[in-house]
Design a protein that fits this description.
This protein is an alpha/beta fold and 342 residues long. 41% of the residues lie in helices and 18% in strands. It contains 13 helices and 14 strands. The chain has helices at 11-22, 39-47, 53-56, 84-92, 108-111, 113-133, 168-187, 209-218, 238-249, 254-258, 276-287, 311-317, 325-339, and strands at residues 2-6, 26-31, 62-67, 70-76, 96-99, 138-144, 191-196, 199-200, 223-226, 232-233, 236-237, 263-268, 274-275, 293-296. It has an 8-stranded mixed β-sheet with strand order 3-4-2-1-5-6-7-12, with helices on both faces. A two-stranded parallel sheet has the order 8-11. Strands 9-14 form a two-stranded parallel sheet. Helix 1 links the parallel strand 1 and strand 2. Keywords: NAD. This is Putative udp-glucuronic acid epimerase.
Length: 342
């Protein structure tokens, strides 16, 4: 297949592109390479896919490389670009679109709300419009566990009410699900939303807890631990997330048209809630250092606990993430030490 992966220089998008190429598919990666975090990390991800920084820098210019014997193309483009995005769809004729591009981060949305509307709402509308008009067979897109907001049912199920988000980021992701439902209903566009649960692993984002904690402990600096450490997360290893994404991207959609089930949403999580203090302990074990902790109140927009129920993913795709935190943290820290020469 020919598959568009947006956010291809991002954490999950990079790993998804790599796995799709390894499975023999043609991938076109799109990313705007913004400065939300160090762009050099994004350029270095692309470098492992054969695209140099010089090739990736020009706007609206397609660069090509060969990975695992398959063609990988990259274009630097904003999802908000209503002029050039349709031209890309018209030229490439994608079979599947995997929309992983978004302005991420719960806390950042408190200070920069406009960015979330531009990328996550306007940008996603453009993806929907292009998918509709250029005969995309399946649109797969990233949602988030944050949509559960003030939901008190544990574990979180896709059948739960998600009308009480507590951050604009969460509200934007819930909006994506509503927009996708509308396009599935009106235009017979198969759409699948994926609610990711606290993704971590090699090449991860520097604003995420594992990266922040590892960096600070390595430098003998204190770490900020919110809600006085009384947090639990369904930490999900990136390879497990990407395996689920790719299975769904490559899944059949014809049966869904026959069954009139064009709109789907799945949780992708480890189906396990890990205490934050246990997570920190595993980092300490791998680094051979104790963390100095600043115990602080819970941050606005944060929830105390997440836990994914993945019954639908098992039923429809015979798949459930299962990498233990111990193994995943070890893999991340090995990457971190190598990448930063620690």
């Amino acid at each position: 297949m020919k598959i568009l992966v947006t956010g291809a220089a991002g954490f999950i998008g990079f790993h998804t592109s790599k796995l799709l190429l390894a499975k023999g598919h043609e991938v076109i990666g799109l990313d705007n390479i913004n400065d939300y975090y160090d762009p050099n990390l994004k350029f270095n991800r692309l470098k492992t896919l054969g695209i140099s920084k010089e090739q990736a820098e020009p706007y609206n210019h397609i660069s090509e490389s060969t990975v695992y014997g398959k063609q990988f193309k990259f274009i630097r483009l904003n999802l908000e670009d209503r002029e050039n995005l349709p031209d890309l769809f018209k030229e490439e004729k994608f079979d599947v679109v995997c929309n992983l591009a978004a302005q991420a981060g719960v806390r950042y949305s408190l200070e920069n709300p406009e960015t979330y509307i531009d990328s996550n709402i306007v940008g996603f509308l453009n993806i929907l419009e292009c998918s509709r008009h250029y005969n995309v067979k399946h649109l797969v897109y990233a949602s988030s566990s944050s949509v559960y907001g003030l939901n008190e049912e544990i574990p979180f199920s896709t059948s739960d009410n998600v009308d009480r988000p507590i951050s604009l980021y969460a509200a934007s992701k819930k909006s994506n699900e509503l927009m996708a439902h509308t396009y599935s209903h009106l235009f017979n566009l198969p759409t699948t939303g994926l609610r990711f649960f606290t993704v971590y692993g090699p090449w991860g984002r520097p604003d995420m807890a594992l990266f922040l904690f590892t960096e600070a402990i390595s430098k003998n600096e204190p770490i900020n631990v919110f809600n006085y450490g009384k947090m639990e997360r369904d930490f999900t290893y990136v390879d497990d997330i990407v395996e689920g994404v790719v299975r769904i991207c490559l899944g059949e959609t014809d049966n869904r048209k026959e069954k009139n089930s064009l709109y789907k949403v799945y949780n992708i999580g480890n189906n396990n809630s890990v205490k934050l203090l246990d997570f920190i302990h595993e980092i300490e074990e791998n680094l051979g250092k104790k963390a100095e902790m600043n115990l602080m109140p819970i941050q606005p927009g944060d929830v105390a606990r997440t836990w994914a129920k993945v019954d639908d993913l098992i039923k429809d795709y015979n798949y459930s993430p299962n990498t233990p935190v111990k193994k995943g943290i070890e893999a991340f820290i090995n990457w971190y030490k190598d990448y930063y020469n620690v």
